[in-house]
Amino acid sequence: GPYCRNSIPSAPLLVTNSSTVTILFNSTSHRSGRGLLVSYATSQHPGTHYTQEHVSPHPPVTMCFSVYCPAGCKDIHGDIWGNLRQGYRDTSVLCKAAVHAGVIADELGGQVTLSREKGITLYESAFANGLRSKRGSLSEKRLIFHKACDDVLEVVAFNASSWWHEVDVLGQDRDWVAKRAALSTTGHSWAAEPGAEAAWLELDLGTRRNVTGIITKGSSEEHDYYVTSYHVSSSRDGKNWRPYRGSSGQEDKVFEGNADSQGEVSNAFIPPIIARYIR
């Protein structure tokens, strides 16, 4: 400290070897406030970043937890194994895994709900929300994070600023049009016209929806093409666009994309986007 009103501390994450923290309040007599919120996580027991444990009606099948994670857990020392779809090895740093799963924003922290269920043989590595998890072996238990919404949204139509009309070495035509941008499409994907600047891909969801995240993947058929970073903007009418700025709200957020053409990369929208059109 000191931590003063309306000022952001340069190092909001305090690391200490002590088991005690003393807070001294010093204010003038004519000023009142709500006080101070302190949350903590221990690095000594990386799988137990919580203070309360609630056992479900049918133990030992599932153990449910409600955990408060502080901001800045992305940089905590320790590893995570697994991904949001499979769950995480129970020895993973819990709150760091919550950032990877996209249930909290690292700059905000927050309450997360998860359960401890039966472990699996192998946990696959994944890159999500700026973190790379490890490939992990069998564990007795695994951590499952519960998200309010994880359904896959249907895209009614794709549009793009441009598309590449390719003529290959054999003289054959290949169109890298916008509709080929769907994640499940086999073969080549969408690509902007070579040399095009400020290229964009637009998704029409048909009606206004609650969008909580995005998954991107490169085009691996004969090419090693992928997007390394991108901005997101949204619109309710297809005419007026609002850039996504994330929880900070200060500047347009740059999402970290793919590092190769093979793997999928997830990024969460916290808070979510409510819109019909996404670019």
UniProtKB/TrEMBL annotation:
Domain called LCCL: residue spans: 58-143
SUPFAM superfamilies per the UniProt record, alphabetical: Galactose-binding domain-like, LCCL domain
Pfam family, one: LCCL
All residue ranges annotated as the F5/8 type C domain in the record: 190-279
Keyword set includes RNA-binding: no
Keywords noted in UniProt: Disulfide bond
InterPro entries: FA58C, Galactose-bd-like_sf, LCCL, LCCL_sf, Neuropilin_MCO_CoagFactor
Gene3D superfamilies (alphabetical): Galactose-binding domain-like, LCCL-like domain
CC terms in the record's Gene Ontology section: plasma membrane
GO molecular function, one term: signaling receptor activity
Name of the molecule in the record: DCBD1 protein
Organism of this sequence: Irena cyanogastra (Philippine fairy-bluebird)
